[in-house]
Every structure is written in C-alpha cells, then in structure tokens.
Amino acid sequence: MTAAPLLSIRDLSVDFVTPRGRVQAVREASLDVAPGECLAVVGESGSGKSQLFLACLGLLAARAATRGSARFQGQELLGASAAALNAVRGTRIAMVFQDPMNALTPHLSIGRQLGEVLLDRGLASPLEARERGLAALQGVGLADADSRLRQYPHELSGGQRQRVAIAMALMTRPELLIADEPTTALDVTVQAQVLRVLRRARRDGLAMVLITHDLGVVAGIADRVAIMYAGRIVEIAPVRELFAAPAHPYAAALLEAVPRLSEASVGRLRSIEGQPPAPGEIVQGCAFAPRCADVAEICRREVPSLRPGATRAVACHAPRIRPDLES
Amino acid sequence: MSDPLLQVSGLGVRFPVRRRRLGAPPRWLTALDDVHLEIAAGRSLGVVGESGCGKSTLARAILALVEPHAGEIRWRGAAVRRSDPAGLRRMRRELQVVFQDPFGSLDPRMSIGESVAEALDALEGLTESAAVRSRVTAVLEEVGLDPSLARRYPHELSGGQCQRAAIARATVVRPRLLICDEAVSALDVSVQAQIVNLLSALSARHGMALMFISHNLAVVRHLCDEVLVLYLGHVIERGPRESVFSAPRHPYTRALLAAVPEPDPASVPAEEPIDALAGRSGAAPARGCIFQARCPRADALCASQSPSLVEAGPAHVTACHHWPTLEAWPAGSR
Lengths: 327, 334
Description:
The complex is a heterodimer. Chain A is of the alpha/beta class. Chain A has helices spanning 49-56, 82-88, 100-103, 110-119, 126-139, 145-148, 158-170, 188-203, 215-221, 239-244, 249-257; strands spanning 7-18, 21-33, 38-42, 64-72, 75-76, 93-96, 176-180, 207-212, 224-229, 232-238, 307-308, 313-314. In chain A, the strands form two sheets. Chain A has an eight-stranded mixed sheet, sandwiched between helices. A four-stranded antiparallel sheet of chain A has the order 2-1-4-5. In chain A, helix 4 packs across helix 5 (126-139), helix 5 (126-139) packs across helix 7 (158-170) and helix 7 (158-170) runs parallel beside helix 8 (188-203). Chain B is an alpha/beta fold. Chain B has a single domain (4-16, 28-261, 289-325), classed as Rossmann fold (3-Layer(aba) Sandwich), CATH 3.40.50. Chain B has helices spanning 55-62, 85-94, 102-105, 112-124, 129-142, 159-171, 189-206, 217-223, 241-246, 251-259, 300-304; strands spanning 4-17, 27-40, 44-48, 70-75, 78-79, 95-98, 177-181, 209-213, 226-231, 234-240, 310-313, 316-318. Chain B is globular. At the A-B interface, helix 7, helix 8, helix 9, helix 10 and helix 11 of A face helix 6, helix 7, helix 8, helix 9 and helix 10 of B.
C-alpha cells in the first residue's frame, strides 16, 4: 500500500479488570486501514473484534485498560482528551451497530435526528440540514424519503431503521465508517438491501471497517480480511487470497465450517472440535493449539507472532502457506 | 411409504388485533392460512421464510401451544386437541422441541443433570436414581458433553454447550420428532457446524424425524430432505431439497436464495434484491396472490386470482400462476 493509512493500529491490547481477575480481550493487535478500503474483521463471539475498535474510539468501560497505539490520519486516539475524541467520533469516524433501535431516539422524528447530527456540530443551517437529511435517506434507498422525515423509529421496520442509522452515520461525510455486525439481526432479503447501501457508500470513496462473523457478507464487500481468535489477529489477507487459500489453520477451518448454498454435496459439515478459551483463561503458547489439526510441539510453548509477507500476514508456527516466502 | 408421523391439514391460526374503537367488529391478524404438511418417520423437513412469515407459529400450533381456528393436526393418526390433556401428554413424550436461545430454555437454578432428569421424570415417570443417572450420562455423552458437566449450571457453560444440553434434555426421552426452532441461529459458525452435525447424527442413529425451522437456507440445504417455504402464513412452495434448491418454482423462493451472500468473493451479489418485507405481516392483499406486491412477475391475473398449490415436479408444489414460464434457474449456481 502506497497511500498513508487512514487508521493505523499498533500493538493494541485491552484488558478488563474483573472480580475474577484480569481478562485479556485484545492482545497486541496491529493493522492498517487505507483510504477507501473495506477491511472486514472476522471472529467468533468473544474474539475481541468489537473491543478492538471500541478501544480505538475511547468507548470502552472505565474498567478496561488499553495499551498500544491507534492513529487516525496521524492523530493518536488512545489517551486523547474527550474533546479531541469528540471532534473525530461521529464526524470523521462514524459507527453503525447491530441494533438500530439503540442508535435512534424513540421520541424524535427521523428528520429531527438526522438534522441534529449536523446542527449540534454547527455544520449546517436548519434548512441545509433538512436538505441533507432528505438526500441521505434517498442515498440509502428509502422510498418516500420526504414522508419518512416525519416518521418515528417505531413506525419503521428493522431494515428501514438500519438504513436510517447508516444514513445518519453518513450525514457528516465521514472518512471512515466502522460497522459492527450491521446486518446480523436482519432477514436475508433485508440484509441484501443494507449491503447494497454499504457497497454504494464504498464506491463513493468511504473507507470501512466491517466487523462480522458472516463470511458470506465478507466475500461480497471486503477488500481485505483480518481474522481474530481469542483476542489476537491470526491472519490478514486480501479477500480473494484468503478464500482461495487460507494460511492459518483456524481461517481454513472457519471457511470449511460455513454451510454453502451452492454446494451440491450434502453431508457432514467440517466443524472445529472443542471451543475457544473462556474469557480470562490463560493458554500457554498459541490459543488455537488445542483445536488445531496441524499443531506442533512449539505451538504449545510459544505464541506465534504475526509475520507479514507481501500482501498478507499470518500468526502461525506451521501455516498452510508461508506469506513471507511467497514469490 | 410408511404412515406419516405428523399430518397437518388446512391449518389456520389467527390472533385478535386490538379494535380501533369499542363495539367495532373484531379484527384478526392471520398468522397461518390453510397450511398442509406431512412428516414421515425419520425424515427431515426444513421450514424457511422471513421474520413474521409464521414459521414459529407453525411450531407452536403443532405443539398445541396456540389454538388453531381451522384445520387439523394429527399425530400418528390421532387428532391433537388442546382439550385432550391425556392425548397431549402422550404426544409430548414423542415430540420434543429445541429453541433458539438455550439459556432461555434451561432453568438457571437447575444443574444440567437435573434439567435432563426432570424430563425423564415428567415424561417417563423415571425417578429411580441409578437408572436416571445412567440415562443422563449416556445422553450427555451422545450430544458430546462431558458427563461431569451434569453438575454445572447453565451460566457456567458456553452457548454451544448450553445448546447441546438443551438437545440432550429434548432427546433423552427418545422422541420420534424433534422440532428445532432456529436452534443454530444464535451460534458461532464453528459451533453451528457442530450442532448441525449432531442433529443429523442423532436423527440417523435413532430414526428421529426433524422439523427444522430456520432462516438460514444453507443450513437447511445441508440438513433437510424436504423444504417448505412460508410467506405471510401461506405455503408458497414445498418439495424435495434438491428440486427446490436447484429448480425453485416460485419467484419468492428464488428471491430468498438470491439474497443469501455466498462465502465466495467470485460470486457476484444480486444487485437488485427484491424489496424487503415491509411493515407487519398482516399486510396481506385483499385479493389475488399473497406475494404480488413484491413479485417481479405479478400481472393482472395475480391481482385478481389467488394461485393454489399445483404440482411442478415430483412431490414438488408451488403457488404461482407463472411457474411454467419462470426463466431457467442457472444450473450449478445458487
């Protein structure tokens, strides 16, 4: 990548202090998001994928301890003052979450909420704010945008609400959108519509971090994929390279576990035996070793570091492909 | 052909909707309308459709948890009626259910072992402790849980372990039919694969029939012999798995299949997905085809006449006027 990264995360760790002890939610994560790029972050529940980006935005609970660095266009976000973060959050970096009802205020009309995004920041006059709200609703493909402005969240379906939440996130024309499981709660037909909206925003040059556990969604929209397991990034690769030949055994197993519609062969799904370490559980060596088909003796002693290659990076002692040795 | 375990004919379920004013005529929301289905011993039926299509109401009607206003449900030849508690008790020994949220279906104050043992007590009257213990141990092993987990409580287990415990509790009485209502939807993909494999193994080993309700079409394709597609409470297509997935005969089924994002960066996503189901499911048109508002093929005939289910292939039925002229479904594609 030649362009300077938009978001650059280095050695970011998040610990939660709980009554039962310290829980390491994210461990030494490093990644870059280039301008205009869509990076998908994939992992199972508890893998730390949401915590990583909440930490970047200073949105974690007070009992979380964050170390490392997260720079947005060169500006350090970790440890930044609330004022400095507020200048970035919701303006230059926007977020969309799984449940759109939590992003919308039930007693304010859609038009009012969309307008407030700009009015509160002094970015537009009331008339301009209304115009841009209307344009934003049309941009996410909502029919009758004009009358939608007067409606309240409860009058909309789940998919419509999620599209309003995306419209709201895009009001300030952010450079980066962080979308955390934006389609997980939706029916497939609604999901297809929301993905179409996100793809259109991408074509307009918006960079995106898409946090998801759905590899089907990833394949349709992402440029690169980061796979997380037990708080660590275990592989980062361009989407086609990853789906064609995953290097990390966990990435490979995950791809094989997904049931496919197009597959004529029906039978046992490949499953990953066992389960990820429980929160707070300390695993010696590689956290995936107890479930890994390719486990070697060194895996149980040493945590593999994320070894970068030309286009991809993998954290494994015995990867299926050695990205650093690829020609 | 053996006699079907479960026969549902002409099933209709509706719920009262609040009246606009006192004295106004009662209004109803139709959740299911004229649903027919059969499940034979050892077979698996997948039920698919969007939220609000009546999938879960169908399960609840079969379990006699809601009262149908029309039609009949027969379990092994005998009619199931809510007014016949003894008959219901007999049926429930043979018909078990697993829901989406395993934490919600296990009593948080009972250990896993107690939950499973309770099913034995309630449905088989088995209380003798050595016999109970050996059955509990056997079923936990069968679902892939370490029997030592019998002493643990639901909050101490992961989502996947809890779902295995719920399956253990449902299958310990050796049901002839297991109804799974979105039983793998809340699980991570690696755990989902484990549970799908477990259900298919249990079904094969004990000849247990499955009714698998899901919005995940790919999982249904893996697990089920037959597929039934529901739309606004109506069966709009039903047929053998291969026939429905490789040659869908209803525009709605096609739209559903096309909307599934495939885990393959080379597959091009459908650029023009059909409009999503807008608003509440009660918004059925007064006349004509139930799907007309969203259908790319809708015409005057669809607006005036409701299509009935017609044979479109061996054991394959569809409710579409235009099924013979639907374009060929691309072979080998989704």
